[in-house]
Q: What sequence folds into this?
């Protein structure tokens, strides 16, 4: 007999005052965080699980228990949400789609073992990690740190410094108004800045494309052991087959890019 897909839902609103610290952790699911009005955090969840082939546990009762007692903890303005709710007795660990609305003045720390994380519009610091999935952060008003073992990282329109690291997967860090630091073992890297600030990139294998802040000055050093390097017109330039050094528009924040195997394109 084929296991049946079962589904439940919960919806909770928590009163808060002042800046919120949100912590989210998921084994297998998706986390979405967006901003709403001040003074409240709303957590909506969709719980899915398959019925057991062995009849050891009634999954419907388990889902009902989650609906009645969602995995949400509140300690003042600290909110913790987790989907680590399985008691391990039935096949198909429950997955929870978490849709969380927070005040703009919120910091977020989110972790997913296997799933996706999307955070939009929060003004506090953001820290995300996933073992296998994606991370998307849009419009953050402070520093952003993202890490993935195997997956995609996309960070756009952040006004603070950005750190991104991936073992295997692509990285997009675009329209950034602060420092950028990126590390990758394998994957394509695309970067752009709206304000001149330090950029540091290290990659083992993959193409790197960087768009600098328009009209801004930088001091550039780019090195590729195996690949071509394309850079804007520079002064005080020194170059070789695999390395370029010089000033753009009279110099400024340092840009250091190194890739073992891949092309480097800077504009």
A:
């Amino acid at each position: 007999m084929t296991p049946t897909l079962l589904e439940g839902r919960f919806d909770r609103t928590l009163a808060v005052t002042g800046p919120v610290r949100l912590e989210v952790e998921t084994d297998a699911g998706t986390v979405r965080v967006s901003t709403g009005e001040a003074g409240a955090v709303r957590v909506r969840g969709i719980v899915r699980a398959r019925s057991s082939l062995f009849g050891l546990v009634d999954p419907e009762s388990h889902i009902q228990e989650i609906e009645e007692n969602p995995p949400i903890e509140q300690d003042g303005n600290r909110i913790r949400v987790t989907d680590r709710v399985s008691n391990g007795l039935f096949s198909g660990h429950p997955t929870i789609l978490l849709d969380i609305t927070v005040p703009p003045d919120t910091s977020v720390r989110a972790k997913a073992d296997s799933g996706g994380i999307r955070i939009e519009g929060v003004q506090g610091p953001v820290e995300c990690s996933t073992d296998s999935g994606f991370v998307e952060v849009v419009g953050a008003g402070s520093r952003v740190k993202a890490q993935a073992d195997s997956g995609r990282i996309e960070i756009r329109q952040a006004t603070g410094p950005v750190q991104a690291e991936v073992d295997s997967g692509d990285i997009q860090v675009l329209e950034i108004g602060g420092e950028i630091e990126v590390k990758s073992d394998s994957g394509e890297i695309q970067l752009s800045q709206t304000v001149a600030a330090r950029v540091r990139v290290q990659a083992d294998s993959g193409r790197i494309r960087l768009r600098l802040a328009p009209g801004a000055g930088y001091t550039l050093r780019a090195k590729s052991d195996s690949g071509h390097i394309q850079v804007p017109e520079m002064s005080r330039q020194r170059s070789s087959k695999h390395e370029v050094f010089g000033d753009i528009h009279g110099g400024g924040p340092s840009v250091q890019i190194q890739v073992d195997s891949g092309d480097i394109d800077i504009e």
Residues 86-92 have pLDDT under 50 and may be disordered. Residues 20 and 158 are 19 Å apart (CA to CA). Residues 1-116 form one domain. Helices lie at 59-68.
